[in-house]
Design goal:
Elements (H helix, E strand, L loop, with lengths): L2 H30 L3 H72 L1
């Protein structure tokens, strides 16, 4: 094989390799291409995700507000309970003192 035949054979081999590579690239592109319908579906999914995240954020804000209200109410009720218990204790002490006074004055 002389020099000219070698160059021609190499050129043909390179052209065939290039053609096969181009065809393989075209096939990959053809099968992995995203259609407009798929893009539309992705847009709808992205919007739904955005709406869900916004709803979640609103729910978390509502829960935080409601938790604060309930905690405040609980503290208020706890203070009322303590005040009622203190009043009951005072009333019992007063009733006991009155019973003692009645017993002392009644025995005379």
């Amino acid at each position: 094989m002389n020099r000219t035949e070698f160059i021609i054979a190499t050129a043909v081999i390179l052209f065939v390799a290039f053609s096969l590579g181009w065809f393989a690239g075209w096939l990959v592109n053809r099968f992995t291409r995203v259609t407009r319908a798929e893009i539309g579906e992705l847009d709808r999914m992205a919007q739904a995700l955005h709406d869900a995240e916004e709803t979640r954020d609103q729910a978390l804000a509502y829960l935080a507000t409601r938790e604060g209200e309930l905690e405040s109410l609980l503290l208020q009720k706890d203070a009322e309970l303590r005040a009622a218990m203190d009043g009951l204790r005072d009333a019992r002490q007063e009733a006991e003192g009155l019973r003692d006074w009645i017993d002392r004055n009644h025995r005379r």
